[in-house]
Design goal:
Elements lengths: L2 H10 L6 H12 L12 H10 L5 E8 L5 E8 L4 E8 L4 E5 L3 E3 L14 E4 L2 H19 L3 E7 L9 H12 L11 E5 L3 H10 L4 E5 L5 H7 L8 H15 L3 E7 L7 H14 L5 E7 L12 H13 L3 E5 L17
Parallel strand pairs: 4-7, 7-8, 8-9, 9-10, 10-11, 11-12
Antiparallel strand pairs: 1-2, 2-3, 3-4, 5-6
Bound molecules: iron/sulfur cluster (SF4).
């Protein structure tokens, strides 16, 4: 929903200023799906808004729900016909996480990622990003009554820091108390390590969480599987994180996808521990080991036992580690699996 257009439409209709927050609240916080549901305004105004504005900037093409009902993926068709995906996940607690896309496709071509395979089509505009959250708010209102969105992660299709202008606008809307009213700490931005973006996040949204998709701890391997490393090397990343800590003193989540025979050996654990310890501020790093979700890109996931050995090694080196439960696998909505189909 474009908030500026909403305001202009209300001015055009000679509405008093107090109408704006009334309608904003109904759309962004209550999660109505149709202007006709707003009972606090006149029928004439509701009909005018229906004629003037779309609440969502896309149409929903497909919704896939996992058997347990706690992973849901939506395929969305944008106004220009391109498609993106967004995911809603829960551990069954009544609280849900929304994973949003920030680009249609991705230019960075990480070798294990389904999104990166077909390149970048275009950046999303802010409205298309925050509307993914709005859509899931509407969905939960209809399907699950009192359930709430408690977290938003920029971890869907695309690299958020390569679309910073629009991502920044969407972050402003999501944290605006008159609009979505999410706390900054309930939002995370995940990056493969775009240094300029990390510094901008620290400066402009120091309370928004940062997640770094590291996945490899030597330049040799990272260059091979994540071409972006040729520009933003591990040494560059280390300096950027040190700078980030200086500015925010906030925890960073290190994401590490476990790929069988590629980055899950003893030597890989050694290199990872060595690299992370060399950054300093070990207490501000938390490593998430993630079981790889199979895509058509041909990698295999590390076995559960081996993941535990890897975890133990890192813990013995004084690092804080979790094995992240891979929610969303059944609907192909987990990290690195969104391909817009
Ligand atoms: S992992 Fe992220 S940055 Fe890499 S290709 Fe996929 S979407 Fe792009």
């Amino acid at each position: 929903m474009n908030n500026e257009q909403l305001k202009k439409s209300l001015v055009k209709n000679n509405q008093p200023a107090y109408r704006v927050p009334q309608i904003q609240k109904a759309i962004f916080q209550t999660g109505i799906s149709n202007f006709m549901e707003i009972s606090t305004i006149s029928k004439e105004l509701r009909e005018f808004l229906v004629r003037e504005l779309d609440i969502l900037s896309f149409s929903v093409k497909k919704i896939v729900i996992a058997k347990d009902g706690f992973s849901v993926k939506a395929l969305l068709e944008l106004r220009d016909g391109l498609a993106i995906e967004t995911v809603l996940l829960s551990a069954g607690t009544g609280k849900w996480s929304v994973c949003v896309s920030s680009q249609v496709g991705c230019a960075l071509n990480c070798q294990f990622c389904a999104t990166g395979k077909n390149g970048l089509r275009r950046n999303l505009i802010a409205e298309e990003i925050s509307d993914q959250v709005l859509f899931w708010r509407q969905y939960l209102k209809k399907k699950r009554g009192a359930d709430k969105i408690s977290n938003i992660v920029y971890m869907g299709m695309g690299e958020p820091f390569l679309n910073w202008t629009e991502v920044k606008k969407s972050l402003k809307d999501l944290t605006d108390n008159d609009l979505f009213a999410f706390g900054s700490r309930s939002i995370s931005v995940s990056t493969v390590g775009i240094a300029e973006g990390i510094i901008l996040l620290a400066k402009e949204f120091p309370q928004v969480n940062l997640a770094l998709s590291l996945h490899f701890a030597t330049d040799e391997k990272r260059n091979k599987y994540m071409p972006v490393n040729n520009k933003y090397s591990l040494n560059n990343l280390k300096k950027t994180l040190q700078n980030y800590f200086l500015k925010t003193n906030r925890q960073v989540f290190i994401e590490y996808i476990m790929l069988a025979g590629i980055n899950d050996g003893e030597m890989d654990a050694y290199e990872l521990a060595k690299y992370l310890k060399s950054i300093g501020k070990r207490q501000l790093l938390h490593i998430n080991l993630i079981k790889y979700n199979q895509t058509e890109r041909g990698f295999e996931s590390t076995s559960g036992n081996k993941v535990q050995i890897f975890k133990k090694y890192l813990e013995n080196n004084g690092l804080s580690v979790s094995v992240r439960k891979s929610l969303g696998q059944e609907v192909f909505g987990a990290c690195g699996q969104l391909a817009g189909k």
